[in-house]
Design goal:
There is one protein chain. By secondary structure, the chain is of the alpha/beta class. The protein has 2 domains: 221 residues, NAD(P)-binding Rossmann-like Domain (Rossmann fold); 136 residues, no CATH class. 45% of the residues lie in helices and 9% in strands. The chain is built from 16 helices and 11 strands. Helix 5 packs parallel to helix 11, helix 8 crosses helix 9 and helix 12 packs across helix 13. The longest helix is centred in the first third of the chain and has 47 residues. The radius of gyration is 32 Å and the shape is elongated. 31% of the residues are buried. Belongs to the HesA/MoeB/ThiF family. Pfam families: ThiF. GO terms for molecular function: ATP binding; tRNA threonylcarbamoyladenosine dehydratase; ubiquitin-like modifier activating enzyme activity.
Length: 501
């Protein structure tokens, strides 16, 4: 009797537990269902609150000052613009924004995302690089973006532009980006400037937006005058800026680096930018995205204009603006996107304070200093051997030059043995004739050129100096024909690349 009563009690308790669990599941499902329904209702309410368009819109002057239907926004664009206007005025559920930014939120944490959402970023240049940068910044949560570009979307833009479609051909790039991104992040405030950036307009174009100074400036310009003007303005006024060097003629994404402008090499745009900035007193302090990929046989390259183009008249008349680019630069559509995403990534990490360390220079400055000192000593010994006082001798080689030769030309290995330890740079051939400039009284300058140097181990350099530079042995006698040909080929290669520095 007692055992039967126990079974009945246990069965009753199990029923109570089961009922409680089922009730909890039902209540939880009801709550989640209510929240989902509420969220869907908010979204639909926002969409339904936008009035449908009527035929009268077709005759109105559009935002570009034209009445042609070619430039008129589509009905979807109009609805998106209306939704964006409401969202910017605060009529957009913040929970929906946070849900859209959920992945960034858990990565950057709430404080980091808050910094990004309150940031004001200016993107100068809205082509292949700038459009991808702007799109990533908006999708990541930046709430205020100023877009500056004078150009329009062309058919040739579509191989690399992040947002342009056939319908956008002929429209300003800044408005193309704004219209597309309003459909993605309607709460973002886009300040569009369909203008050419220049030194004369820099103050107004980089001015505060609604009282907020820019947190970061993205340089995605491919015109050297505008690029230098922007970087100089930002550098001298303490405005944070990151610059994209040339993506044209590049194809190797593994060679992309982020570092100081003083370390950027193997790129005509980078070379011109560095030289112009140095004349303005700016040697370093500007982060850039650049590629160390070298040009070579079979690779795309910037070629002179065909003779038939010169025959048409003044080359300057071929450009959209005076002194602006008139040639088509070969561009693989993927590379501007990679540059633009790298730029945006840098801005996001900087604004949010997320830890990041770049290693473009391999942290080998001390080694470069040692190699430079060794080279200085070698030149002084040669000068003394030739009857010059070595005191005060100067060589035209810098630490940056040493780093370039070691890493880019000789890939960190001896040209003789292939070893990578205890390295030294030394003249390859015995200097002939005058190799010391003695025009300044009391000051001797070596006429050494970078392409005259080879990388060896210290032991090999000591032997080389004794037998070749100071002795009477020939190069083939010491190293053999194969090694001499290898060195000659490397030097000819460097002579070609030297123009990019």
């Amino acid at each position: 009797m007692s055992s039967g009563l126990s079974r009945l009690t246990a069965s009753h308790n199990a029923q109570l537990i089961t009922t409680a669990v089922v009730s909890g599941v039902v209540v939880g499902s009801a709550i989640l269902g209510f929240q989902k329904a509420r969220r869907m209702y908010r979204v639909e309410s926002l969409k339904e609150s936008i009035p449908d368009l009527d035929e009268e819109h077709a005759t109105q002057i559009n935002e570009y000052g034209a009445a042609s239907s070619v430039f008129l926004p589509s009905k979807e664009d109009e609805r998106s613009a209306a939704l964006a206007a409401r969202a910017r005025n605060g009529d957009y559920d913040d929970d929906l924004i946070l849900e859209q930014l959920a992945r960034n939120r858990v990565f950057l944490t709430d404080p980091g995302l808050a910094k990004l959402r309150s940031a004001f970023v200016i993107v100068v240049g809205c082509g292949g690089v700038g459009s991808h940068a702007a799109a990533s910044l908006a999708r990541s949560g930046v709430s205020k973006i100023r877009l500056i570009d004078f150009d329009q979307v062309t058919l040739s833009s579509l191989n690399r532009h992040a947002l342009a479609t056939l319908a956008d051909v002929g429209t300003p790039k800044v408005h193309c980006i704004r219209r597309r991104l309003e459909q993605v992040t309607p709460w973002t405030h886009f300040d569009c400037r369909n203008e050419l950036f220049s030194a004369q307009s820099a103050e107004s174009q980089l001015a505060a937006l609604e009282g907020q100074e820019p947190d970061y400036v993205v340089d995605a310009i491919d015109n050297i005058d505008s690029k230098v003007a922007l970087l100089e303005y930002c550098y001298k006024r303490g405005i944070k800026v990151v610059s994209s060097m040339g993506a044209g003629c590049k194809s190797d994404p593994t060679r992309l680096l982020i570092g100081d402008i003083s370390m950027s090499t193997d790129d005509p745009l980078s070379k011109s930018t560095r030289r112009r900035l140095r004349l303005l007193g700016i040697h370093s302090g500007i982060p850039v995205v650049f590629s160390t990929e070298k040009p070579g046989p079979g690779k795309a390259q910037l070629l002179p204009l065909p003779e038939e183009e010169f025959a048409k008249g003044q080359v300057g008349e071929l450009g959209v603006l005076p002194d602006f680019r008139v040639r088509i630069l070969p561009v693989l559509g993927t590379m501007p996107a990679i540059f633009g995403l790298a730029v945006a990534n840098h801005v996001i990490l900087e604004i949010t304070g997320y830890p990041h360390e770049y290693l473009p220079s391999k942290n080998r400055e001390k080694m470069y200093d040692g190699i430079l000192g060794s080279l200085q000593g070698s030149e002084e010994r040669l000068a003394r051997l030739s009857g010059f006082a070595e005191q005060g001798l100067r060589i035209p080689i810098t630490q940056d030059d040493v780093g370039y030769l070691v890493e880019e030309v000789y890939h960190g290995r001896s040209i003789i043995s292939g070893l990578s330890t205890k390295l030294a740079l030394v003249r390859w051939e015995k200097p002939e004739g005058e190799f010391i400039d003695k025009r300044t009284p009391g000051q001797y300058n070596s006429l050494l050129k970078m392409r005259e140097l080879v990388l060896m181990t210290k032991e090999e350099a000591t032997k080389h100096e004794k037998e070749v530079l100071k002795g009477a042995k020939g190069l083939e006698e010491v190293y053999g024909r194969e090694t001499v040909e290898r060195v000659r080929g490397r030097m000819e290669e460097e002579e070609v690349f030297e123009r990019f520095r």
